[in-house]
Recover the amino acids of this structure.
């Protein structure tokens, strides 16, 4: 199928007794905004790392836009996806323009076309006035916004975001979420993880709640709430499936 | 190519923003080589180049005492001090001053020394004349007790220093005694009934065969001796070039920590091109460092009363060696940056390991003066390969034929370190 398909995915890290992923399976259709939700240690970051090809699963199958995640397709998949990691994956001593020019060059873009693209996105994300300011002088929200631009310079068909709104103010969060809706409206798929379940409820058309390396439930957030009359919102559904016990 | 050039530009931008890094890479090495050349100047000088104060007590007041003083002064190696505060020095006072370390050497010429030498020379001449059937009888002192010129050394004086002074004085005394003997023989030949003209036109030579040093340089002759600048400037330059390990390892760990490495790996295309760009940039920085330090040796050292650095004639070979050292140093930085998880770990290990490699590699003191086992160990250090190659060019006037083996060792070691780093990174991903 087109979109993302994960089937019976297992992963145990070296030196660890407990598997991180224990037969995880889910599917997200193409062109949707999907959420991968779960408590700390559920295996979300490992799942994303396997989707990107950074980490290899022990067994199971991952298919992205019809391409199996394996050595033969790894480069093709890199063209399809854009990753916004949890960390601000930019050089703090360089300005936004210098960072984006460098990463744009690595994608093979150069010259005026690249500069125009960079300035276009800096304007969209409200960073045009700080374009030449070093990243370490940015606020948390500005860093998050610049981090997203670095992931979309090559116009990926699938954008994967790992907690893109963590630690940002309401204004920046609103801006980021609106951008994701706009980007999705152009036909791109979006997969995002977050601990902000209210945000996920308003943004996602489909969510997977996972815990202890397995999928617990999948569906449209509103439908999931409807299916569980005791739950008022997605957070209630989340707690219903994952419980109240603290996680490491 | 775009990835490679973009990486070089990015590294350049990062370096320009890192003021401390710039100081570490370009200012500290210049200070280091200058200081090391200055403080190691004296130990590197031959004893012939250094002038020592020498306390001289002449109790002989004869020809020997005068000859010893004049001879020592004429050699240009000693400042003769025979009186302090206008008073002649006594043997006891001289001994005391040397023992206190105020002077390094004292020579006591005993009373009657000239008489003893004259008597000995007369005895030899009488004996020779007798054997030749001549009736000569020069005065000879009865009771042939030999006298000694006494030398006192500062107790802290090194064995090699004492040996060199002993040899110099012994040679000088032998020369004085021989001259006295020849004077007497010449006198007897004068007295003999032979024509006057014949004697002085055939002077007796003390040395029939002399010593002359020639350069071993193969083609264009250069006359370079291993002085403080010739050793310290290249040696500490290599040491400083290897210190590039610190910024490289720190840079790589930061890239891993802040996620930019992750982003680079998520971008399609070979990571090798990015790594090659990084390597080219830092090898270039190493070569630039090297030549800046050579310029200090050529232009700054003479202003500090040190010898000028001589770089040999084969500049192509020098660039090759500098690039080889840069490659090995950069690869070592990448390996450390890959192996260690925190900048602190990398900094400590990197710095200490370079100090150890430099110490055993002949950077601090030449390998030749180390114990045999340490010399074997020292020849395994990449820093010693670099230094050997530079010495081949600078001191032996060698070309690429002289240095290629050491350059190859540096390159292969660099490639091996990169391969290990690649293997570790791959294992980490898996």
């Amino acid at each position: 199928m087109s979109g993302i398909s994960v089937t019976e995915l297992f992963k145990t890290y070296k030196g660890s007794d407990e598997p991180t992923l224990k037969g995880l399976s889910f599917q997200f259709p193409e062109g949707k905004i999907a959420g991968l939700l779960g408590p700390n240690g559920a295996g979300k970051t490992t799942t994303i790392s396997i989707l990107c090809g950074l980490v290899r699963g022990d067994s199971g199958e991952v298919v992205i836009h019809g391409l199996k995640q394996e050595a033969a397709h790894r480069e093709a998949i890199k063209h399809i996806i854009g990753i916004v990691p949890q960390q601000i994956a930019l050089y703090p001593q360089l300005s936004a323009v210098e960072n984006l020019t460098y990463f744009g060059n690595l994608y093979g873009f150069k010259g005026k076309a690249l500069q125009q693209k960079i300035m276009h996105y800096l304007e969209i994300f409200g960073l045009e006035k700080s374009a030449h300011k070093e990243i370490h002088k940015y606020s948390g929200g500005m860093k998050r916004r610049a981090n997203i631009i670095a992931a979309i310079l090559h116009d990926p068909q699938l954008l994967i975001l790992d907690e893109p709104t963590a630690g940002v103010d309401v204004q920046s969060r609103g801006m980021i979420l609106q951008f994701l809706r706009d980007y999705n409206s152009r036909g791109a798929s979006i997969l995002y993880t977050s601990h902000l379940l209210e945000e996920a409820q308003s943004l996602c058309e489909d969510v997977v709640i996972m815990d202890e390396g397995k999928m617990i439930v999948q569906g449209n957030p509103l439908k999931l709430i409807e299916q569980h009359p005791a739950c008022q919102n997605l957070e209630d559904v989340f707690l219903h499936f994952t419980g109240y016990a603290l996680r490491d | 190519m775009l990835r490679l050039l973009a990486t070089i530009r990015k590294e350049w931008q990062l370096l320009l923003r890192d003021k401390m890094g710039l100081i570490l890479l370009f200012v500290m090495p210049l200070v280091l080589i200058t200081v090391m050349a200055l403080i190691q100047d004296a130990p590197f000088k031959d004893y012939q180049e250094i002038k020592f104060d020498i306390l001289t007590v002449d109790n002989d007041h004869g020809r020997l005492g005068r000859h010893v003083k004049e001879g020592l002064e004429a050699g240009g190696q000693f400042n003769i001090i025979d009186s302090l505060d206008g008073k002649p020095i006594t043997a006891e006072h001289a001994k005391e001053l040397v023992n206190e370390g105020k002077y390094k050497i004292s020579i006591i010429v005993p009373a009657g020394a000239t008489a003893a030498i004259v008597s000995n020379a007369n005895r030899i001449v009488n004996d020779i004349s007798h054997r030749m059937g001549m009736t000569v009888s020069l005065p000879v002192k009865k009771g042939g007790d030999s006298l000694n010129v006494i030398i006192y050394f500062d107790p802290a004086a090194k064995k090699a220093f004492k040996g060199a002074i002993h040899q110099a004085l012994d040679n000088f005394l032998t020369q004085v005694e021989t001259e006295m003997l020849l004077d007497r023989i010449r006198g007897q030949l004068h007295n003999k009934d032979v024509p006057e003209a014949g004697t002085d036109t055939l002077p007796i030579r003390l040395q029939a065969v002399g010593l002359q040093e020639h350069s071993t340089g193969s083609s264009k002759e250069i006359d370079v001796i291993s002085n403080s600048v010739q050793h310290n400037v290249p040696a500490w330059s290599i040491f400083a070039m290897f210190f590039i390990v610190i910024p490289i390892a720190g840079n790589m760990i930061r890239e891993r920590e802040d996620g930019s490495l992750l982003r680079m790996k998520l971008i399609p295309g070979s990571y090798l091109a990015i790594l090659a760009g990084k390597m080219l940039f830092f090898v270039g920085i190493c070569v630039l460092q090297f030549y800046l330090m050579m310029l200090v040796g050529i232009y700054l050292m003479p202003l500090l009363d040190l010898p000028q650095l001589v770089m040999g004639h084969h500049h192509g070979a020098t660039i090759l060696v500098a690039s080889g050292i840069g490659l090995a140093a950069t690869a070592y930085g990448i390996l450390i940056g890959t192996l260690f998880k925190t900048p602190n770990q990398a900094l400590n290990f990197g710095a200490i390991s370079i100090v150890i490699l430099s110490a055993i590699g002949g950077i601090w003191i030449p390998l030749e003066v180390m114990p045999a086992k340490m010399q074997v160990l020292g020849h395994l250090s990449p820093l010693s390969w670099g230094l050997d190659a530079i010495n081949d060019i600078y001191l032996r006037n060698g070309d690429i034929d002289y240095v290629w083996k050491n350059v190859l060792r540096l390159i292969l070691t660099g490639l091996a370190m990169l391969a290990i780093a690649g293997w570790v990174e791959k294992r980490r991903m898996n």
About this structure: Chain B touches chain A at residues 2-3, 5-7, 9-10, 13-14, 17-18, 257-260, 262-269, 274, 429-430 (CB under 8 Å).
